[in-house]
């Protein structure tokens, strides 16, 4: 029986049983077990030269396919294995083509486009059953010891992460409402049972607003491998990102009919530990045509700008929410 990170995770090492075993729940004393599980969630195994395979995949509650952040992280992990140790990731640009099926492994084909003195370029195509589901270009660079220009934006003020309720606590509070539709109540209960290995702490900002902020870090410690930390940051950067566009329009979670990432880009500015608190400052400048755009900045707790992100995603209203808004008087957004 596979020992998986969370429910709906498929481990491809042993598929005799697909029911996952959870040995730690949120808040248990053995949370450190999630450090190893987080590392396994972004790991890939070598099949042949330039060819890698996922070890496991996660299907989030209510999602159409495997978690996009996990696909990005595993593709980055595969690309890392094809460059020298002195190379660090500095940017990635990706497209989600098809939803990932958690029942079969993802195959990552790495194309080595260039190996220069200062930069290396890789293109990774993720496929299942002969069809591409995801493609990403990665650029790596060596550390430059010469005198450099340097500036960054200031980290916004934010409450201490330990003063904020966890995602599980917020979900439990939402379940206390008596007027929840049965399907949405079931979805929230599944969210609690997922027992995520990443601890997210949402910062309450009055809506409607085009800004969203959250702290995040892994539950449990990770090794000192900085490449692992980069993969985990990439993993977490996809969570809740395009949802910022829904918040800009004051759409409740149950009013969303479809929310899915179309693309994802990242620029890595400095190394950081994913098991220390990181602040994700997000904003959405535009929604339209059934899509929403979001940009983000990730800061370490001491204010260092670690990464910049960008994403566009599908954002469609549920039929009920469409009917509700069709009966409202149109108003121009003042954001």
In short:
The protein has helices at 33-41, 68-80, 167-174, 182-194, 226-237, 243-248, 319-326, and strands at 9-11, 44-48, 51-54, 56-58, 87-96, 107-115, 119-128, 131-142, 198-203, 211-218, 256-261, 263-268, 278-288, 291-300, 305-317.
Written overview of the protein:
The chain is an alpha+beta fold. Helices cover 21% and strands 35% of the residues. It is built from seven helices and 15 strands. The chain has helices at 33-41, 68-80, 167-174, 182-194, 226-237, 243-248, 319-326, and strands at residues 9-11, 44-48, 51-54, 56-58, 87-96, 107-115, 119-128, 131-142, 198-203, 211-218, 256-261, 263-268, 278-288, 291-300, 305-317. Strands 2, 3, 5, 6, 7, 8, 9, 10, 11, 12, 13, 14 and 15 form a 13-stranded antiparallel sheet that branches. β14 (291-300) and β15 (305-317) form a beta hairpin. α2 runs antiparallel to α5 and α3 (167-174) runs antiparallel to α4 (182-194). The model is unreliable at 1-8 and 16-24 (pLDDT under 50).
Which short descriptors sum up this protein?
335 residues, two-stranded antiparallel sheet, 15 strands, 21% helix, disordered N terminus
CA gyration radius, whole angstroms: 20 Å
Report on the biggest sheet. 13 strands, antiparallel
Q: pLDDT under 50 segments (min length 5)? A: 1-8, 16-24
* Structural class by helix and strand composition: alpha+beta
Order of helices and strands: EHEEEHEEEEHHEEHHEEEEEH
Classify the helix fraction into a percent range: 10-25%
Total number of strands = 15
What's the overall geometry?
Answer: globular
- Hey, roughly how much beta strand do the residues contain? 25-35%
Number of helices: 7
């Amino acid at each position: 029986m596979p020992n998986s990170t969370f429910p709906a995770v498929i481990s491809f090492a042993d598929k005799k049983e697909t029911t996952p075993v959870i040995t730690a729940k949120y808040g248990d004393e053995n949370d450190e077990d999630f450090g190893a599980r987080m590392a396994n969630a972004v790991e890939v195994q070598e099949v042949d030269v330039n060819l890698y395979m996922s070890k496991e995949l996660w299907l989030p509650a209510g999602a159409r396919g495997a978690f996009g952040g996990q696909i990005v992280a595993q593709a980055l992990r595969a690309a890392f294995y094809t460059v020298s140790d002195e190379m660090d990731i500095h940017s990635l640009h990706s497209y989600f083509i098809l939803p990932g099926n958690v029942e079969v492994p993802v195959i990552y084909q790495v194309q080595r486009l260039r190996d220069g003195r200062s930069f290396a370029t890789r293109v990774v195509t993720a496929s299942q059953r002969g069809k591409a589901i995801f493609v990403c270009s990665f650029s790596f660079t060596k550390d430059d010891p010469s005198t450099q220009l340097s500036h960054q934006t200031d980290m916004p003020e934010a409450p201490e992460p330990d003063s904020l309720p966890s995602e599980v606590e917020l979900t439990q509070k939402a379940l206390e409402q008596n007027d929840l539709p049965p399907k949405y109540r079931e979805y929230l209960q599944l969210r609690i049972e997922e027992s995520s290995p990443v601890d997210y702490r949402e910062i309450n900002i009055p809506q409607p607003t085009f800004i969203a902020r959250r702290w995040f870090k892994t539950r449990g410690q990770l090794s000192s491998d900085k490449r692992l930390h980069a993969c985990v940051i990439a993993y977490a950067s996809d969570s809740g990102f395009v949802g910022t566009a829904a918040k800009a329009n004051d759409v409740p979670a149950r009013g969303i009919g479809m929310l899915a990432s179309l693309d994802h880009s990242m620029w890595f500015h400095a190394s950081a530990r994913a098991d220390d608190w990181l602040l994700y400052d997000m904003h959405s400048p535009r929604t339209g045509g059934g899509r929403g755009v979001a940009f983000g900045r990730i800061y370490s707790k001491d204010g260092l700008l670690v990464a910049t992100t960008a994403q566009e995603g599908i954002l469609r209203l549920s039929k009920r929410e469409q009917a509700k808004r069709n009966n409202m008087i149109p108003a121009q957004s003042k954001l």
